[in-house]
Amino acid sequence: MSDIVIIGAGHVGLTLLADLELTKSHHGLTAHLLSLGDSASMRERSKDWTRLVMENLMTGSEETCALSESRFASLWSEEGRRVLENAGTIVVTVPDIPKLRLELLEHFERTVDLAGKVIVFVRGGQGGQPVLAKWIRDSPGLRDTSIILVEDSFYGTRVIGSRIQYKRKISVNVSVYSLDPDTALARLRRMFPLGERIGRPSWPDMRVCDGIDLLFNPLGYIIHVGVALDPPNLEKTRKGIRYTHYIDGISPELAARLDLLDRERVLLARTLGAEAQTFPEIIQRQYGLPAQDTFYDMMRSCRGMYRSLSSGSIPELRASRIVLEDVPAFLTIRWIAKTAGLEMPHTESYFDDVQEGLREIGADPGSCTTYLPYLDRIDGGVEDVRQLLNQPHRAPALSMS
């Protein structure tokens, strides 16, 4: 029996698989990784993953992780179905791309008995969170299923061939949708057993928050889209010039605009009675970095940690999660603002610029609007949305003690 199934063979999925293997002596769990590709392509790709080198960017230490090819399979294969059926915990690490997320939900319902399972959605507070909450509420078969939404990856990580460069975050926010939330949370924490090293129950520490709070934690629609579609950066991408997204991609002028958008995001959260941190505050919480005077200075202070590179071409950008995940999340934020009746002038001006940028790169507008019909089916006002996002099972709230 496989204790854990990881869906997604990208940076986060591979890092999690290797981390679970290296800490297995602490938790005793076995993990499999399922790719969204077919079986043939997965067999070919997994040949490079039987020996992974984990480089800790904070300490400089390295560990080698040996994995059998049998630990990898295609999600759509019979082996993938069997592994899913036997898993106690399913961790979805693929981006919240609307078409893909809806296909996954349908696949789960059609092929697996989800009763008693814990499903963890990494980057769960993205544009699809209201749609996911509605799915839970409208599906009687999910009554005994626990859903945990994680604000972001458990790591800052980048996989280059068989080498994983990573840094473990100190803390990530999570929301627990469950009739037995404490047990579900304990199962997630068990996967990250090094908490005693930082004086927390797990590492990263799973900081519980309400679902409505989590919706405002991710801000890819600001920090990803705003950087990638900024005209000077877009010109670099056209020329095939890659730059460090979070560092060299943010000028003082762009940082000032991103700061205004970030503050409107926090204002929207408070209008709905939610708690939200500014992006600099999120960085301080996740990585333990000292505060800086400005948004720009805060981003510059991350140079040793943030190594993500920009897209190297317009076609690559067009097919990236920036367009396919973060822009749909922007539309969800605008839907929330409309529901709350809040005007956000900086955000609306920015939205116009984003639309122009998408036209410039030839992005498919339909790929960004898939969630909108599902959002329009959510009835009620602010309080109804709050209740849906906080308790889709209509269960008691998680004890914070």
Q: Can you put this structure into words, describing what you see?
A:
- By secondary structure, this protein is an alpha/beta fold.
- The chain has two domains: 4-214, Rossmann fold (3-Layer(aba) Sandwich); 220-381, N-(1-d-carboxylethyl)-l-norvaline Dehydrogenase, domain 2 (Orthogonal Bundle), CATH 1.10.1040.
- The protein has helices at residues 11-22, 24-27, 39-46, 78-86, 98-111, 129-138, 181-190, 211-214, 220-223, 225-228, 231-238, 252-271, 279-287, 295-300, 314-318, 321-340, 345-361, 372-376, 382-390, and strands spanning 4-7, 31-35, 51-56, 62-66, 72-74, 89-92, 118-122, 146-150, 155-160, 163-168, 171-177, 205-208.
- The strands form two sheets. The protein has an eight-stranded mixed β-sheet, with helices on both faces. Strands 4-3-10-9 form a four-stranded mixed β-sheet, with helices on one face.
- Mean pLDDT is 93; it is low at 395-401.
